[in-house]
Amino acid sequence: MWVRFASMIILRNISLRRGSKTLLNNVDLTIQPGQRIALTGANGCGKTSLFALLQGQLGADTGAIEGLDSMRMASMAQEVSATSENARDYLIGGNTEVFALRQQLQAAEQAEDFSRVGQIHNELEACDGYDVERQADLLLAGLGFATGDSARSVKDFSGGWRIRLNLGRALMCPSDILLLDEPTNHLDLDATVWLQQWLIAYRGTLIMVSHDRDFIDATCQQIVHMEQQGLQLYKGNYSAFERQRAERLANQQATYARQQQRVAEIDDFVRRFRYKATKAKQAQSRLKELERMQLIAPAHIDSPFRFRFPEAARASDPMLKLEKARLGHGDTAVLSQVDLVLRPGSRIGLLGRNGAGKSTLLKSLTGVLPLLAGERFSGPHCSIGYFDQQQLEALDLEASAALHLQRARPQAREQEVLDFIGGFDFRGDNATKPIAPFSGGEKARLALALIVWQQPNLLILDEPTNHLDMEMRHALTMALQEYTGAVVLVTHDRHLLRNTVEELLLVHDGSVDVYEDDVAAYERWILQQNPEARPRQRETHAAPVVENAATRKQQRKESAEQREKLKPLRSAIARAEKQIDKASTALAAIEERLSEPSLYEESNKAELADLVWEQGKLRNEAEQLEESWLQFQQELEDLEQSVG
Q: What is the dihedral of CA 131, 132, 138, 140, to 10 degrees?
């Protein structure tokens, strides 16, 4: 993951058109080495085209890009490969230098050119070529593949898993700049957290398109927002961008009235929620988030999405119940002794690794998957709205968005249909033309619209945010917060999970248990179980399920004793982190100054030289501090294991 010396990337007077649409108009942008940038903007604004421009797949209509010629670039392919190569070799192919040397070695051995064989072995040693199998296996494990999957043919995997392989292939490539387009779209929460840690450790320049705000907040330090044919640079992560953009939009007279209306709506909901909130920490956390939303509301004033779930109809209590249920496929049980009761207003989020049985549980709740044993009870007034990725495949490609809704409720008036579907940004021709050419995001929006349209009182949602952009995710979050029915949710979008559910269940090792901690604690547990992305053996890891009171008391006593032993190392780590923060802040200030075009004028030559020297000094200092921090962390992990 170490990178060579890299230069700045400078976009000068870039204009870019696609067909009759101008995406960029005389744009300037400077990207410093090592910057971590999230590229945001509405669907269709040109993010993918900008990536293609950086990769040389498109040419600018005017202007030029400087600094890319000497840089190694890696990117995540979006097309799904169907090669017969096995998964490990497919990832190794991402390291083009090692892959070429391995091919040459095979040819030289067949030709019995032993002089060349020896030379190639030296070259492989120099570029760490003997470690690629281990690296590939670590990437596969981190991305959620089972241990035996490395030998499986790529063509044997489904489309979503092939996208994961494309991501692994990009991470395998040594690079100075990494371009990632929606890397978390087909990942579960565990793999998303692993990728987040991998990117935090990446030393090159990262430019990423993502609609997962928590993922952006953890991995990026700048936002480049595409709007009005320009590129606007914001300092900080997505949350900081949202606040800054909210302030800017709030000052625009044209949006003032809509801003006040939206803030009033949120204020009203906060008041109602405050009245009903219990003292549960999940509820308190959610209340704080709602209050924060008042500050960022203007950032979404120009969102094209406006929808709400209708007031839930009369509901049974309980709505749905599983008793001593055995769930699975055919004769194979995935989950056993499942007891679950859904009541009006239940808001449940499911946690668990890929393959643990979350989707099996959801399909069993809906009745799509029959129980292997036990009982499923559905109340007479239970109306289920179920979303999973198969809903997209069930859409009629020859029908329009409006026609899909009309078929679901034939008695609805045409204007009512058009008004409703407009809230999902299907307007004009987009509402009435066949959906065949629609993007994955547009089809996902339509599938969600269909569910909302049918007015369910129980929502069962399996990864509803895949393909949805940031504004649609925000609209979905707000709609779910105001929804009065019951919700069962599986998602890798932690922001959505934190702000829409009040109870967490952990699906793990064949059981479903209440998880009494929060999403952040679950993230930490994931990383503790898989610190180096090594292949996981499920039977060696105990689930983080809360035990009985006596056990908890004993655990607290043991934890206190352990903390005393670990205190010196934790203090050393804390000091190192403060020093790293201090160096990072100083480095950021220098790099901010280096991004100013005026610095490169002849009159500022001396200052430029001083800043470049200071930049190098601080980078070396930061690297040494990071090495010390890593050493302390390793010592801490070793001690924790010995104590445990």
A: -170
Is 511 within 8 Å of 524 (Cβ atoms)?
A: no
Rounded CA separation 424/450 (Å): 10
Q: Which of 213, 149, 185, 212 is nearest to 389 (CA)?
A: 185
- The span from the CA of 41 to the CA of 474, in Å, is 14
**Tens digits of residue pLDDT in 271-304:** 555 544 443 444 455 555 555 555 555 556 566 7
Q: Which has the closest alpha carbon to 490: 514, 468, 462, 518?
A: 462
Which residues face 38 on adjacent strands?
208, 223
Give the lowest-confidence range in 66-80, 144-158, 266-280, 523-537. Answer: 266-280
Distance separating alpha carbons of residues 238 and 223, to the nearest angstrom: 7
The DSSP output letter for 277 is: -
**Taking a C-beta distance cutoff of 8 angstroms, is the pair 64, 234 a contact?**
no
Quote the CA–CA distance of 515 and 437 in Å, as a whole number: 42
Which pair of structure tokens corresponds to residue 449?
Answer: 């619209």
Look at strands 21-31 and 9-18 and give their pairing: antiparallel
Q: Distance (Å, rounded) from C-alpha 571 to C-alpha 554?
A: 25
- CA 607, 613, 616: angle at the middle one, nearest 5? 140
Q: Is 362 within 8 Å of 388 (Cβ atoms)?
A: yes
Whole-model pTM: value is 0.68
Round to whole Å and give the CA distance between 99 and 93.
Answer: 5
End-to-end CA gap in the chain: 32
- Answer yes or no: are the C-beta atoms of 395 and 345 closer than 8 Å: no
